[in-house]
Amino acid sequence: MNPEALGKVIFYGSSIALFLIGLYIILVKRNLIKLILGLTFIESGVNLFLVSIGYVWGRTAPILNKPELMETPSKLAVDPVPQALVLTAIVIGVAVTAMALAIAMLIYDKYGTLNISKIKELKW
Amino acid sequence: MIRNIFALLLILVISVFLASSIASIPFGTEKTTVGKYYLDKTIEETGSVNTVTSVVVLYRGFDTLGEVTVLFLAATGLGAILFGLREKRKRKKERPSLIMRTGTRYLFTAALLFGAYVFVHGHLTPGGGFPGGVIVATAFLMLFLAQEGFRVSEKGVKFVEALAGMTYVAIGIAGLLLVGSFLGNFLGTGIPNKLASAGIIPLIYITIGLKVGSEITGLLQNMRETTEYES
What we know:
The structure holds 2 protein chains of 2 kinds. Chain A is mostly helical. Chain A has one domain: Helix Hairpins. Chain A is built from 5 helices and no strands. The longest helix of chain A is centred in the last third of the chain and has 32 residues, at 80-111. Chain B has a two-stranded parallel sheet with strand order 1-2. Chain B has one domain (2-230). Chain B starts with a helix and ends with a strand. Chain B contains 8 helices and 2 strands. By secondary structure, chain B is mostly helical. At the A-B interface, helix 1, helix 2 and helix 5 of A face helix 1, helix 2, helix 3, helix 4 and helix 8 of B.
């Protein structure tokens, strides 16, 4: 197997796998905390995918703390843009998870259960 | 049961489509030219050796201000949602052990110091305001878990948060007045790889670190139960 195909299988494959595991949890599980965990799985799958898109063979992190890195940075360091965007996405993900957990706490307080199939108002 | 089978079928279909479209993206090659521009110009234009930091704080500074606002809204909204719920949740718990109580007391200062180190050195090392702030909040989480009845002052948290947020905007307005663009770098670039370099990046990351740290500490305190300990 050539290196490019191997990298594709490992990085793209594992990000797709994380995404699908999250989707499966959301579709099948009935516990609200598990649903929120599924959301974070999807989020980390997408983040891993974005970071691995920015990788370039044989290059190092975009922190230019060595003389040779300072001279020709664009030939020695990976793409910083996906990393900066993922940094934003992680912070927003924390905010979303915190809000979802707060709503789960409210639901537990009102209905006494976290099982969504036992909450009558959610049925149609 | 039938639900599981349908879910698996759906996931199979989605995985085939996702894999076939993602497999055509090459791995390990350069894809953007803007990334190359940032790498070549970061030391000359911003003085920050950490390119990710210069992209987040200077080139995309507006975006980061918005991001901090989103985090602030989430923390405020969570406080509003959980208001009044706090007194109801009371549960008897076992008292934390002596090792926990003593250990966290010493670890607390070390964790605070490490968090401050991470957000002060955001332009030199991997890290920055967001991870540093979360490390600071972790130090408080340890105390919430291990010390009985430990609470942070709600007013103090709000004060640090508001002060940090206002300092961030004030730095932006100072840039507008002195250089002519909001969040413009008015301090010069300095010598790369020194702590006092990169102009306003360390200042902004210190405000972000304090803001994120106080916000997440307040958020953790809101989500925590009021516990009574068995004596």
